[in-house]
């Protein structure tokens, strides 16, 4: 995806528009999009009772949303160039808001999943197009601050999501989780239409319909296969058929994208070693850590008997560790460098996930909180290191395509993480010799071990890095022998 370079503020917004207001507006939209990816985790048991399904089966409500984000992010840049940033961003807010109402009104799993897919389409258009609106409206000297502001919602929303979802679910109804988006969405649409510029790209590039179709089929089929494998009573043959079809479509997509003059996803950044490692082993790491926010609330509620609010407060400890690590990430990276941090901390992150398997209903809350906080610290450091390494050596002409590819894979692996959690629970139930519809604390213990093993495998890719890989970014210099 090619991003249009920032234009002077006078061309990006009306004369009475303020770049700071656009930054705030986009940050609020990012907050809504990130919040809806995590907030329903603590509400799954109550939603399962409303839909008369098993709580683990509701993982599709999370993965369908994240998968749709991954599928539609690549075309957001093309849409903004073709129809204008203001039109696309406002329409995305309208779709996201309307589908939020639909999510809250549904009474069945199929209808809810369909509404989440539509909501994901709106979210996929909001995020990259909103970032483009900020780039165009902000002067170069204020760009660093603007990007910093719109990045924070991605960190704050996961912190607020679990306890907020638990509070709403415990003292009201899970449906209000989605109705809260309505006033924010309406205000956002009004402000976006008023303050974001109307210009479009004069050099319109052709839309890669074949590439988009192949990527969509591959991603959807593989994710649906993983969903079936994690669902109680799902036919194995059907799951394997979708998996095989997804892999065939994926191979065809790779062949097409490498030969297309205007690919919907630019793969050239994979020639850069650091980017390839960050997307390979880094994606496996994201799969493992994305399973944790799905499994933890279920273990606390179904395994330990907590209510949704208390479950959300405990899950909050993990994300508190995430934010706390931000204070020391830069010194740690400067002292040890990417390779040593990714290897040592990768092992620590996997062990911290495995340690969750030792938690029981009788474990003191302080000890539980220490385990969760330690896990949050290690996963935050690993996540930041992987994301930074991704673009450490990517040339500027390839930066836009690499950013789109990274965003797509990030959303895809987050959805796969939830599916991995559901698959681990089903496998644990099978190994313990009971039906998948009923879960026990022992099932969660084994599931966390399986997820930790995936995280451990993720560091294998890192051994191929040079000892001083990305040193110009981390500030680390290899000690002389």
Characterization of this structure:
- By secondary structure, the protein is mostly helical.
- The protein folds into three domains: 1-9 and 16-196, Up-down Bundle (Growth Hormone, Chain: A), CATH 1.20.1250; 208-263; 266-481, Up-down Bundle (Growth Hormone, Chain: A).
- The chain is built from 19 helices and no strands.
Number of helices: 19
- Strand element count: 0
CATH-scheme architecture of the largest domain:
Up-down Bundle
CATH class of the largest domain: Mainly Alpha
So what's the overall shape?
A: globular
Largest sheet: none
Residue stretches low in confidence (pLDDT < 50, at least 5 long) are 1-17
The CATH topology of the largest domain turns out to be Growth Hormone, Chain: A
Helical residue percent band: over 70%
What is the chain-wise order of helices and strands?
Answer: HHHHHHHHHHHHHHHHHHH
Structural class: mainly alpha
Indicate how many domains the architecture comprises.
Answer: 3
Protein name: MFS transporter
Transmembrane segments: 21-44, 56-76, 88-110, 116-134, 146-164, 176-195, 207-226, 238-255, 275-296, 308-329, 341-359, 413-432, 444-465
Membrane topology: Multi-pass membrane protein
Keywords: Membrane, Transmembrane, Transmembrane helix
């Amino acid at each position: 995806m090619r991003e249009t370079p920032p234009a002077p503020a006078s061309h990006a917004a009306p004369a009475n528009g303020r770049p700071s207001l656009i930054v705030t507006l986009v940050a609020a939209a990012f907050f809504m999009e990130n919040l809806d990816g995590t907030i329903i985790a603590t509400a799954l048991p109550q939603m399962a009772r409303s839909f008369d399904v098993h709580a683990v089966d509701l993982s599709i409500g999370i993965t369908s949303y994240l998968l749709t984000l991954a599928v539609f992010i690549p075309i957001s840049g093309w849409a903004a160039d073709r129809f204008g940033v203001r039109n696309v961003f406002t329409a995305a807010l309208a779709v996201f808001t309307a589908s939020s109402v639909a999510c809250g009104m549904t009474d069945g799993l199929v209808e809810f999943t369909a509404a989440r897919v539509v909501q994901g389409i709106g979210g996929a258009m909001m995020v990259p197009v909103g970032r483009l609106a900020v780039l165009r409206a902000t002067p170069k000297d204020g760009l660093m601050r603007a990007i910093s502001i719109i990045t924070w919602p991605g960190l704050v929303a996961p912190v607020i999501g679990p306890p907020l979802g638990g509070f709403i679910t415990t003292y009201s109804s899970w449906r209000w989780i989605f109705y809260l988006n309505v006033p924010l969405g309406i205000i956002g649409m009004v402000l976006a239409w008023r303050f974001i510029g109307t210009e479009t790209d004069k050099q319109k590039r052709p839309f890669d319909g074949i590439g988009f179709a192949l990527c969509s089929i591959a991603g959807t089929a593989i994710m649906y296969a993983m969903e079936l494998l994690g669902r109680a009573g799902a036919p194995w043959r059907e799951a394997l058929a979708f998996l095989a079809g997804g892999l065939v479509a994926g191979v065809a997509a790779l062949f097409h994208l490498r030969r297309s003059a205007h690919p919907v996803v630019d793969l050239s950044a994979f020639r850069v070693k650091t980017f390839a490692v960050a997307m390979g082993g880094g994606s496996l790491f994201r799969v493992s850590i994305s399973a944790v926010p799905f499994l933890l609330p279920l273990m606390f509620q179904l395994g330990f008997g907590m209510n949704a609010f208390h479950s959300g407060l405990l899950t909050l400890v993990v994300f508190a560790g995430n934010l706390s690590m931000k204070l020391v990430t830069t010194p740690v990276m400067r002292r040890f460098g990417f390779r040593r941090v990714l290897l040592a901390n990768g092992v620590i992150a996997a062990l911290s996930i495995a340690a969750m398997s030792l938690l029981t209903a009788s474990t003191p809350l302080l000890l539980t909180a220490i385990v969760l906080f330690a896990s949050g610290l290690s996963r935050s450091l690993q996540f930041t290191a992987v994301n930074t390494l991704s673009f450490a050596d990517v040339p500027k002409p390839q930066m836009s395509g690499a950013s789109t590819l990274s965003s797509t894979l990030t959303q895809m692996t987050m959805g796969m993480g939830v599916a991995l959690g559901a698959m681990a629970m089903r496998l644990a139930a099978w190994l313990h010799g009971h039906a998948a519809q009923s879960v026990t604390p022992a099932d969660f213990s084994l599931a966390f071990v399986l997820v930790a093993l995936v995280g451990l495998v993720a560091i294998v890719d890192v051994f191929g890095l040079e000892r001083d890989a990305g040193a110009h970014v981390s500030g680390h210099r290899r000690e002389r022998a």
